[in-house]
Amino acid sequence: MSRVRVLFIDAYDSFTNNIVSLVENQLGVEVTKIHIDSYVGDLATFIQPFDAVIAGPGPGNPEVLDDVGIIASLWRIDETHIKPVLGVCLGFQSLVCAFGGRMERLSRPRHGISTQVDTCGKDLFNGLTDFQTVQYHSLRANLGQPEPSCIASEPCSELTPLAWDLSDPSGGPILMSVKHRLKPFWGIQFHPESILSSSEAKNVIRNWWLLCKKWNQSREDLRGVEKTQSCSLNNDASGDTYTVDSLSPSSMPATPSSENSMSSNTSYTTTRESSIAENYVHTAIPLDRLTVSDIVHRLELQNDEFVVLDSEQRLMANLGRYSIIGQVDRITTKLTYQAGNGVIKITTAEYTALEQVGSLKSALSYLKNYLNQHKVENGYRDIPFWGGLMGYITYEGCLETIGIPTQTHANRDDMCFAFVERSIVIDHLHGVVILQSIKSGDEIWLQSTSSKLLGTSPTTSIKPATPEALISRLPEKSSYMSKIDRCQEEIQAGNSYELCLTNQAAFKSRKSPSCTSWQKYQTLRALNPAPFASYLHMNSATILSTSPERFLNWARPTLDEHGRSLSVCQFRPIKGTVQKTQILPDGTPHGVALQEAMQILSTPKETAENLMIVDLIRHDLHGVVGSGNVTVPTLMQVEEYATVYQLVSVIEGSIYSTPALSSRTSGIDVLASSLPPGSMTGTPKRRACEILNTLEDEPRSIYSGVIGYMCVGGGGDFSVTIRTVFKWDDEDEGGNETWRIGAGGAITILSDVQGEWEEMCGKLGSTRRLFKE
Ligand SMILES: C=C(O[C@@H]1C=C(C(=O)O)C=C[C@H]1O)C(=O)O
Ligand SMILES: NC(=O)CC[C@H](N)C(=O)O
Q1: Do 210 and 289 sit in the same domain of this protein?
Q2: In a domain, 435, yes or no
Q3: Which residues form the Glutamine amidotransferase domain (predicted)?
Q4: Most buried residue, 8, 263, 382, 769, by CB count within 10 Å?
Q5: Residue 495 CA to ligand 2 centre (angstroms)
């Protein structure tokens, strides 16, 4: 029997793949996805191979043709070509508009809010009790009924209401579901696929499917007996009892995921003997009292290009176990890309090559192939990095991966990775330093480097230094506040559910050999300890980061019990911020203590903010790893950082793949499909980024992109480049350099304008303290 197929029409939403996953898992069907503006020729003909259609959620207004595209035509398909349709949110609203309903703005948009839905207990809701479910909408469908009821009436006599949200007496009833009286059209305003929606809400999908099957069967029967007269399509299923057991879930079991695939009781041989495997050599030595800074100093890296992913100031037991120092020298190969020009540049010791790749997304595929060609299988098992690509991607580079064109700046790389062959990994948990190289025959370097580290007693000879800011450009309060208003207007209009608004400060300081970038970084990391701190100097970019936020980590693949390659990946978005108690210069305390922070971070405003990003990341991840392979092991946990409390969630995915090396799905595919980081955009991602582009005054640049590594052994780790001070060499002028800091925060309909301004200033303050102003 051929597999049942469902067509999903995606209105560029950031929850689409979660619905696809729910449908595939619950119904055992195959879902094909197209966009609202995909060219399909005649829609009626196009949908014929499908058993049913889902018209998805999305930004905008169903009365605006550009926002719904071909969804608007679904409802006009003639009787002979008609197929069962489920409209979800925007799709539901479009159904209502097609049959006489109107849209109006909610007085209080409902984004990431979980409420009870009261149902008629029939049809889509047959056998289901009233349930909790999440909503994401700004607009409300109005059927012109004086009171909420489940009986169709003028002026929308073709639509039968099936469910209402009556939880907000002052805001009034909100229509949650309808069906068409004669045609096989159903709609739901709520989001059953959200991680916080109840299983009862999810069962609506099963009920819909039973109704579809029944309708399709009656259509078949009619065709079978070749009835010539027109038939009644009344498919009211009220009162029917359905056996949901007859459905065949086809989910691939979600593999229990672990935070870190390394065993926690790893032991090292801290000898100076080197092991050689292919072109990989390493030496492990005791860390003793060496610091990351000592190592950088002893190896004399500080005045050259190098990268440090720095976890020395470990804050949490499960984060920041390793620091990685990547050596970059004259002969290190670099792979760079500037947004907008479609060309990846490969610079080696011998030559510079340009390859037309088209986009940053394809540049990442290029890097994936590059790493496959330099694959190492026998590195030191217990550390995550053996060598490979270390670098960054700017926010504008990230935008290109979602099809938003951006301007480029000559001499500035939007993607810059060095192919690091010599590296030093410090395991802070076990106090071990692993020196390693993937250059063939590099034992001499190993020996000389370990002698330098073992040599003299550890002293920190590079002193942290504090730069003096000559001219500072700080965010302007009235301008920022008016942008918050504009974000909220966009949200009111249904164009977005959450927007991460940001802006930048700039500090000019004198270039000085007694206050180098590395010294500045030393100061910053002491002032603002963070689990994902990093220092990078490559080409014209210098980055001093104290990021608290992991973007994406993926483990080196292993074989599962079925012989498939499996790599577990993890996102750790932060959304929800409260300032910790601090004593201001005038002696007054500011901010809150843990107990109060916990209370604030559990209010609907903060949890909605976090939930939206969790659902968005689940969507990004589902798009690569497929249905049933995404879990949320931690939902909204409060974590303490140097100056703030933050609400953190963890989303994990199992990347299974076929043995064929070239077609293997890897963490790099997840990376390429998940940029820019959802916590820095808002949702739906694409529309949010378009809106933010019109609001923000300048490119975000390094801020709000990602920084990290992709290892030759198959793993990877990236943080979100926030709480970061950065500069471009082309802005150096007259002995001065210009350092920039971006800061922002997520704006929702529940945001308080003054509160958001203060939150942004608080985040800016955590790194601005680097400068003496
Ligand atoms: C925008 C920033 O941070 C982001 C926004 C957060 C929020 O809105 O609560 C929290 C962490 C980051 O994802 C920033 O640090 O500048
Ligand atoms: N999630 C959605 O589909 C939202 C639909 C519409 N843009 C609204 O805000 O009401």
Answers
A1: no
A2: yes
A3: 8-202
A4: 8
A5: 7
Q: Which CATH number characterizes residue 349's domain?
A: 3.60.120.10
Quick check: is 267 in a domain? no
**pLDDT tens digit string along 412-452?**
999 999 999 999 999 998 999 999 999 988 999 999 999 99
318 in the same domain as 432: yes
pLDDT band at 230 (very low <50, low <70, confident <90, very high): very low
- The reply to whether ligand 2 has any atom less than 6 angstroms from the CB of 137 is yes
Beta-strand relationship, 432-437 and 630-640:
unpaired
Q: How confident is the model at residue 659 (pLDDT cuts 50, 70, 90)?
A: low
Q: Given this model, what pLDDT does residue 270 score?
A: 38
| Alpha-carbon gap, residue 737 to 752, rounded angstroms | 36
Q: Who's near 113: CB < 8 A, 6+ residues apart?
A: 134, 135, 604, 608
Q: What is the pLDDT of residues 557-610, one digit of tens each?
A: 998 888 888 999 999 999 988 988 876 667 777 788 999 999 999 999 999 999
Between the CA of 746 and the centroid of ligand 1 the distance, in Å, is 7
Highest mean pLDDT (candidates 262-276, 325-339, 456-470): 325-339
Q: How far apart are alpha carbons 654 and 625 in whole angstroms?
A: 7
Looking at the fold, whether 169 and 48 belong to one and the same domain comes out as: yes
* Whole-number Å distance between alpha carbons of 490 and 692: 10
Ligand nearest to the CA of 600: 1
Q: What is the 3-state secondary structure (H, E, C) of 303-346?
A: CCCEEEEECCCCCCCCCCCEEEEEECCCCCCEEEECCCCCEEEE
Q: Measured from the CA of 106, which atom of ligand 2 is nearest? A: 10
Assess if residue 773 is contained within a domain.
no
Percent of the chain with pLDDT over 70: 90
**Residue 249 confidence (pLDDT) above 90:** no
Tell me what pLDDT residue 255 has: 30
Angle at 668 between CA 284 and CA 333, to 5 degrees: 60
Band (pLDDT 50/70/90 cuts) for residue 464 is confident
Ligand 2 pocket member 496 (CB < 6 A) = no
Helix (H, G, I), strand (E, B) or coil at 691: helix
On the question of pLDDT at 68 being above 70, the answer is yes
Question: Looking at ligand 2, which atom is closest to the CA of residue 57?
Answer: 3
Nearest to 573 by CA among 532, 605, 603: 532
Read off the pLDDT of residues 388-423 as tens digits, 9 standing for 90 and up.
Answer: 999 999 999 999 999 998 877 888 999 999 999 999
Higher pLDDT, 743 or 253: 743
The token duo for 773 is 């102003």
208 and 284 housed in the same domain = no
Confidence of residue 3 (pLDDT cuts 50, 70, 90): confident
Pull the structure tokens for residue 154: 């003028």
Residue to mutate, 13, 64, 71, 93, ligand 2, most ligand atoms under 8 Å from C-beta: 93
The total domain count for the chain is 2
Residue nearest ligand 2's atom 3 by CA:
57
**From the CB of 60, is ligand 2 less than 6 Å away?**
yes
| Ligand with smallest separation from the Cα of 641 | 1
Q: Which of 229, 259, 294 is the last residue of a domain?
A: 229
Q: Is residue 288 domain-resident?
A: yes
Q: Is the CB of 62 inside a 6 Å radius of any atom of ligand 2? A: no
Could you tell me the residue range of the domain that residue 671 belongs to?
275-538+546-768
Q: Is the CB of 89 under 6 A from ligand 2?
A: yes
Task: Examine the domain organization and report whether 222 and 282 are in the same domain.
Answer: no
The average pLDDT across 147-166 equals 94
Angstrom distance (rounded) from CA 56 to CA 11: 6
Pocket test for ligand 1, best of 502, 528, 574 (most atoms within 8 A of CB): 574
Residue-level pLDDT at 247: 26
Could you identify the atom of ligand 2 that is nearest to the CA of residue 497? Answer: 9
pLDDT reported for residue 276: 38
The set of catalytic residues is 89, 191, 193
Residue 90 Cβ inside 6 Å of ligand 2? The answer reads yes
113 and 206 share one domain: yes
Q: Which atom from ligand 1 is nearest to the alpha carbon of 720?
A: 13
CATH number at residue 10: 3.40.50.880
